[in-house]
Amino acid sequence: MREPLSKMIKTIPPSGIRKFFDIVSEMEDAISLGVGEPDFDTPWHIREEGIYSLERGRTFYTSNAGLKELKEEICRYLKRSQGISYPAEDILVTVGGSEAIDIALRAMLDPGDEVLIPQPSYVSYEPCTLLANGKPVIIQLKEENDFRLTKQEVLDAVTEKTKILVLPFPNNPTGAIMEKKDLEEIAEVVIEKDLFVISDEIYSELTYSGKHVSIASLPGMQERTVLINGFSKAYAMTGWRLGYAAAPRAIIEQMIKIHQFAIMCAPTTSQYAALEALRKGDDDVKRMKESYDKRRRFLLNELKRIGFDCFTPYGAFYAFPSIKKFNMTSDEFAERLLKEQKVAVVPGTAFGACGEGFLRISYAYSIDDLRVALGRIEEFIKSL
C-alpha cells in the first residue's frame, strides 16, 4: 500500500500544550494551571440569547461571511475600541480566531513566501505557515526587552522573500504587550519593506497597563493588516468557537472563498450569542478583567516569594516565570512537578525553542485554586 499521509504533515509535531493535560485528565487530585481557558461561565444573558435563537428555530446556515447584523456590530466595536472604520463587507466571521489565522495565511502565501513569527507565541502560527506552503522565519523575543518585538529584530529578519509579519500581542504565553510607540516603529518597517501584518488580538480586552492599541489603527496600516479577534477570551466563550477577521477587501474575499469550501459558515447559535455579547457585554468584560488582574498580582507576588524570577505580564492571563536557576529543562521541570506534586504547567518550549528555561502558568483560575497549586509548587521547590 502506498503511503497515505503527506510528507508535510508528518514533519509537524503535535501541540506541546496537550501532552500534559492528557495525563492530568486521568490523574486523581491533579491541578492544571496550563489551559488557556477562562474559569468563568459565559455570562447568562449571552447564553440566554443562544438558547433563544434555538427556541426560535434559528438553526439555518448564515451567509458564508456571517450574519450581517453581527458583522455590523463588529464594525461598531472596532470603531469604538480602536477608532478604525470598516465596512461590514470587510469582516469575516470564523470558527474561532484559529481558523482566521489559518485561512489568512492560506489566502496570502505563495510557495516559499516567508512569514516572520515572533516567539514565544501561540502554537498555531508556525504549522499553519507550513501548511500554507510558506516558510516560517522565527524572531526570538528577549526577556530583557520585556518580550516585546523591536524594530531592529524585524529589520534583521526581513529578506526579499518576506511577505507577512505575525503580531501576537497581547502575547500568549508571556503576557507581553506592545504599546503605541512600539507599534509605530514596527509600522515604519512594514511600510518600508512592503509587508503585510496578521495581528492576533484575541487578548485585546485583557490589557492591564493602559489600553490596547491595534497596529491597524496607525496611518497606512489598515490596508496592510489582517486584524484577528474573537469572543473566547474576553467573553468566556471558548466552546462557542467564534472569531473574526477584519481585512482589506481583496484579502477578505479570498479568505471567504476558503472558508466557504472548508467550513460553510460559523455556527449560527454562536453568532446570535456573540451579537448579544458585543451589544451588552462590556460590563461582563470589565468584571472578569478586574478578577484576572487580582489573580495576576497574587500569582506574581507568590511566584517571587517562592523564589522564581518572573517578568511582569501586562496582558492576557499568563505568567512566564524563568526556571533557569533550577538547572532543569522546561520539560524536565514540568514533568517532575506533575509527577511529584500533581500540578500541570506548560513547558516554555511548547511555544518555540526560545521558550527553553521558562514555564507558562495560567491565572485563568480562582485565587483559591492558585493558592493550592502554588503551595504544591513551593513544596516542589523546597525538595530540589
What tags apply to this protein structure?
384 residues; Aspartate Aminotransferase, domain 1; Aspartate Aminotransferase, domain 2; seven-stranded mixed beta sheet; three-stranded antiparallel beta sheet; 13 helices; globular
Output the CATH class name of the largest domain. Answer: Alpha Beta
The class by helix and strand makeup works out as alpha/beta
Poorly predicted ranges: none
Count the domains.
2
Main sheet record: 7 strands, mixed
- Helix share of residues? 40-55%
Average pLDDT confidence is 96
How far apart the termini lie comes to: 52 Å
What would you call the shape?
Answer: globular
Radius of gyration (Å)? 21 Å
Number of helices: 13
Strand order of the largest sheet: 2-8-7-6-5-3-4
Strand content: 5-15%
The CATH topology of the largest domain is what? Answer: Aspartate Aminotransferase, domain 2
CATH superfamily of the largest domain: Type I PLP-dependent aspartate aminotransferase-like (Major domain)
Q: What is the H/E order?
A: HHEHHEHEHEHEHEEEHHHEHEEEH
